[in-house]
Amino acid sequence: MTYQQYLSKYKLNKLPHEHVLSAPTRKISRMNDMCGDGLTFYFLIEEGEVKDIGFDGYGCFLSRLASSLLAKKCIGKPVAELKEWNRERLLKLLGFPVEGVREECVLIPLRAFQSFRLKK
């Protein structure tokens, strides 16, 4: 989908996974100091597998969309498999170009997920 198609579909609604999990096993918050976006990610991990991901907070549509799309791709995967995600893969997942400071918005969920992987 294009940016405009995503925006038209979700502009008045919450995005998929845009909610707080009732019993997360891990919670991570990240901010974009350039614009003030701040999101908290909630993970439910069982036996090394990502069972669910939710997020909430305040952010532009791009940061929220990237969070939603990345969550969808990671649910049902082993935590170890999350190491394969990087900047290029996330930008490709969006399906439309993002440039300049707007890229920082898109990278908020990736940075949260990367920090998750670094902890045991």
What does this structure look like?
The chain has 120 residues and is an alpha+beta fold. The protein has one domain: Sufe protein. Chain: A, CATH 3.90.1010.10. Helices cover 38% and strands 21% of the residues. It contains five helices and three strands, in the order αβββαααα. Strands 1-2-3 form a three-stranded antiparallel beta sheet, covered by helices on one side.
How many strand elements?
3
Q: Structural class of the secondary elements?
A: alpha+beta
The rounded Rg comes to 13 Å
Tell me the CATH architecture: Alpha-Beta Complex
CATH class: Alpha Beta
**Might you state the CATH topology name?**
Sufe protein. Chain: A
Q: What is the overall shape?
A: globular
Oligomer: single chain
The profile of the biggest β sheet is:
3 strands, antiparallel
Write the layout of secondary structure elements.
Blueprint: H1 3-10, E1 26-31, E2 38-46, E3 49-58, H2 61-74, H3 87-94, H4 102-106, H5 108-118
Antiparallel strand pairs: 1-2, 2-3
